[in-house]
Fold each of these.
Amino acid sequence: MDYVKEIERLKKEKNAVIMGHYYQTGDIQDIADYVGDSLALAQQAAKTYADIIVLCGVHFMGETAKVLCPDKKVLVPDMAAGCSLADSCPANQFEAFVKAHPGYTVISYVNTTAAVKALTDVVVTSSNAKQIVESFPKDEKIIFGPDRNLGNYINSVTGRNMLLWDGACHVHEQFSVEKIIELKKQYPDALVLAHPECKKTVLTVADHVGSTAALLKFAVKSDKKEFIVATESGILHEMQKQAPDKVFIPAPPNDSTCACNDCNYMKLNTVEKVYKALRDEQPEILVDPEVAKEAVKPIKKMLEISAKLGL
Ligand code: 13P
Ligand code: SF4
């Protein structure tokens, strides 16, 4: 079976659109109508005219699309594609944390369940977190969750003292600063690019810190030729595509015997599963309407602020 051809046919027949995150395998990125970071995927979902969105990413991305487009069918190729970072912030525990700190504005990273977003004032992604935090007065009391590394990074670049939830992503926590320094000996001219979900030690040696889209843009524009990339390895596909003459080296994880810089959740999706999702119109993302009613507010707020800031 020619899955790519069948996907094209089903897409037209069902007025479907395929959106893919940069962490998907290259073959999925190549068949997607839109490839982007978490912010771009939310922006695309908010404005699509398609009846069906096949969100090639992880569960919380599907939820974000569903909350923004309650009348559309949102499919994820593999329902088991979760996120360790979202899992590190159960809604009931986050609610208790928020209740224990009255008077705080709650800012949540998009890597959260819809139930956590429903407890949130404004959602951010790694593309807009700094600007959105800075849009609040300097003395605003802020709770930031769930990523402690992103939260610490935003505190350091904005001079804020946000109260942080102690969550992390198992992929980004794996990168080893020692291994990166070792690799730099082999590639002395290489610039280090790091996602803000990485640990502080890794961010300290980075030449550029940013979301997947920001790292891609930086690498393409830079006049340097070699880059050590400390984020999930899927981004290398688009980097190599947009800058074929440059060299992209995946930053090594702590344990060189594992493929820990691959997100095992993101990589659950396959082209075959995309085809089956379109054919069967499942697995479908469903969000409790009461939760969705609250969760959509901070997501829309993020999109509004991003639009105003030209992000
Ligand atoms: P961005 O898409 O915002 O770069 O975030 C990366 C990520 O970890 C998605 O799960
Ligand atoms: Fe979640 Fe980390 Fe995978 Fe991103 S890379 S989806 S934060 S587990």
Note: Residues 37-38, 111, 125-127, 169, 197, 211-212 surround 1,3-dihydroxyacetonephosphate (ligand 1) (CB under 6 Å).
Amino acid sequence: MKKKEIQKIYKKKIKLIKKFNEFYYNKSKPAVTDEEYDNLKKEILLLEEKYNFLDLIESPSKIVGHKPSKNFKKDFHRVPMLSLANAFTEEDLINFEKKILNFLSKDKNYTIFYSAEPKIDGISASLTYKSGEFVKGLSRGDGKEGEDITANLLTLTDIPKKIHSKDFPEEIDIRGEVFIQNSDFEKLKEKFANPRNAASGSLRQKNPEDTKKIPLKFIAYTFGFEKGLKINSQFDYLTELNKWGFKTNPLNKLISGVSNLIENYNFVEKQRSNLDFDIDGIVYKVNDFILQKRLGNVANAPRWAVAHKFSSNKATSKITDIEIQLGRTGALTPVAKIKPVNIGGVLVSNATLHNEDEIIRKDIRIGDTVTVERAGDVIPHILSVDLKKRSKKSSKFIFPKTCPSCGSKTIKEFNKLTKKNDAVRRCSSEGYKCDKISIEKLKHFVSKEAFNIDGFGKKIVENFWKLKLIKYPQDIFNLDFSKIENLDGWGKLSVQNLKYSIEQKKTISLEKFIYSLGIRHIGLENAKLLSKHFISFSEFKNLSKQTNYEDLLNIDGIGETQVSSIKSFLSNEANIKVLNELEKVLLIKDAIQNSDDGLLNNKTFLVTGKLNGISRAEVKSLIEENSGKTISSVSKKLNFLIIGEKPTRKKVEYAKQLKIKIIDQAEFLKMLNKTS
Ligand code: IVH
């Protein structure tokens, strides 16, 4: 079939599904049966998969819902809104800078300038300007997709509606924080728990007139998509923002050196109580945009920025009980129930005790008087026990040797790397044998970074589990909605919404799918590596038929710990059953292969020895950007061994034996048409 014909068929199908959506959601009167609707959707998705030139934005693969979630319609960010890694101590900052220098392969005397910006605790928003005009405003949402809150943002006087400056980019997403000043919050105290909630609440009013009533402010600090931005550094960008009419934080500074960062941090922290807005730390961003670009991102945070959180708040309280919580990986986490105490405006009644070793080390007991610390949004923890106040009758806390949920033995695994027993005790059951672990697995499965099923939160997982509506992940896609409709708190419309959200998520990338399975040690980053390696779900599943998992060690970033975890996951029959059942109901999209038109397509590389002015991590990104692959050992699969200073002799010799091409840094860069 010709391209044009395919496009015509595709467009027709999209038009039809739009019509069905309209009937279903806006007129509440379905035009076709669910099955017919699903089939049409699958046909569209399959067409898109087969022909990558088909990508209408109205496609069901792009829109999250025809229906607006609650009050607002959703829209994708053209450049994702990332989050930030946290730093708490000077040591964290030293490590942050060290990692940057390593990545950029600079020596320790190289000076990095940072834009140090107080971190306002509000709600971030992304404002799209086209030809100087404010055309759309989105909330952060999950970072990829936000709510269209344009109408409400239009009511903020801090947001310029039209920018006339000649040097304003043709198109740009200006990003910053919407917040409420403490003095204005005073008047709203009864309605909201804190200024952040007040800002979030008023920004999400159905009626923009209601938003207008609350004096929301906007401070700009970064950008997303841009076309025509002629600026080379963050600090210059902040200056430009001012010229264009945006407010920026008056306490922003350009600083180099960790000790100066700390000095500024202490200075700002002292001013904190005098400020009219809440700040919870300072954000440091590498100033130079070229360096930022080289550094890139990990998972969902940039390598070039960090949030240095302000020191915590502490309080004393009494432990009334110690509960054992069970996580999805079987870890038994002790949690101290404490007499509720107000720490920095938040009522705290739980504190994590981390693991068995921590309880033993600090000899924490029920009845103890303790100091509790709460730092930023981290779970409060116990700092110390006041032994003077300990009752003579108190006795040591005995950690359970059997699982509180299923009764299986609890074990401490031996860690091959540290050659020590783990600090964490785990339930030894596997698959879906332990109820509590299964529930936690399901919660992970539907969570934001995994299947991200709208309206299917932790509470619903627990509720549906109790009612025996779900036990395995596949049950989520085979729910009996007629039963749910009769449950307390559910009605026709909410069931319809749930059905829709689940339906929307039946198409998933291989990467997210692997992550959703909740395999121990396989987080987002590793799931991505695995999906790139396997490309398709069937290849991933086929692994269970093999006995040799060693191949996986060739994936740069995957080590023995991950391999043995994948192996034990795939050797469990219950897990395989889940995979088979999920395969029946889902459309798991193949991983997008790095464009295969790069200069290094089909070529594999390995680096040995120290390179000059470029780190291993950067070489790896360069190779991948150009469609090549890095592997972690010399084998027949290797095409090029890049050698630097002091290479591992064994690797070089083995490569010679296998007649693998050995090149130096200059030759490698030449392959990329680069000279340095
Ligand atoms: S930059 C990739 N700059 O912090 C950079 N964020 O944890 C990400 N925030 O969602 C954002 N002040 O709501 C940046 N000067 C600042 C900020 C700032 C506050 C918030 C923002 C973001 C969160 C990241």
Note: The domain at 3-66 is CATH 1.10.287.610 (Helix Hairpins).
Amino acid sequence: MKIVIKLGTSTLAYPNGCLNIKRTEELCKVISDLKNAGNEIILVSSGAIGMGVGKLSLKERPTDMPTKQAAAAVGQCELMYTYDKLFSEYNHIVAQILLTAEDVRHDERHEHFTNTLNRLLALGVLPIINENDTVSTEEMGIGDNDTLAAVVAVSAGAELLILLSDIDGLYTSDPHHDPDAELIPVVGELSEVMKYAGEPGSPLGTGGMKTKLHAAALCTAAGCDMVISNGAKPMLLYDIAEGKAVGTRFLAAGKR
Ligand code: GLU
């Protein structure tokens, strides 16, 4: 199976931006194992800005563009260094791809991207993709990695997109504040759950349910299932890959 896995900043790093070593090691181990089992995996990883904040010992996520982009430039190195080190332990080769909105919209550049991606997969490499934050801005860029992950899943013709977040899935209301909030296990009709989209909840990341539902719209329309699951529980990736009920699964058009 071809699977795109999106890792959010809140999964990889502590709120201060320093790497959550235990979590990241566990994730890399499970992902390596899924690859060994014969799956083709593509990672979309956030965390560049967050880890830049940690490495530069900034007090909080910067709000001005040059500092944000500088933090991303520092953090992206740290991120790839970490992945290279951890995946090397399991004999997997990683490759970095940084994209901008233009790369996705421009036909020829998009074709170069998909050709490279497919060749990397054919070579057995694990591509790790992020937005090129040094030249993109939230207003002009792809904006968030949930959307980027969906764009990658569609471009790659993936069967499954897994968005790992700091929450178990899509709820009927915010479970941090409402004890009656219920997890929605399966979504067929997206229009029925749009009312549950909320605002981003973590100090370093940018995503929220709104961007995740947007991602679901993009990939399910292209025939790809999408699952939202909790990144704090890496072992769940095994169950998700086997199609077991974990988190919230958005069914691809045609499977509803
Ligand atoms: N590209 C950003 C980063 O690596 C994250 C964007 C997002 O999480 O949506 O820090």
Note: The CA atoms of residues 236 and 242 lie 10 Å apart.
